[in-house]
Amino acid sequence: MKYVKEIVWIIAFTFIGEVLNTLLPLPVPAGVYGLILLLLSLVTGLVKLSDVETTGNFLLDTMTMMFIPAAVGIMSVTDILLPVLIPYIIMIVVSTIAVMTVTALVASAILKHSGEKNADKEATA
Length: 125
Hints:
The protein is mainly α. The chain has 2 domains: 66 residues, no CATH class; 53 residues. 82% of the residues lie in helices and 0% in strands. The protein is built from 7 helices and no strands. The longest helix is centred in the last third of the chain and has 40 residues. The protein is extended.
């Protein structure tokens, strides 16, 4: 019964994201709306982490399998993709480097900020 409750929470936020995507004229995917609402609900305490943690971890663990149909679909249309292969590869490499760089800078800033907080706490103790 616990898993049913957890999946209902996740599906409910996904559905609300779909509704917001339909109602709001913003170029934001429905899944992003759902994830933001779920995050806000977790932060505010409306939903406890234990209410979605097990099913969320299962979905994260099995996420790679969800890409198999898309990969097979891409392989079946290689003749169509061949003319644009080089631009796609360039976009993938550039966007991957950009994401890795931004992630590293944000993580570094967070670690620096949390290190300063810990140093302040140790100094006052």
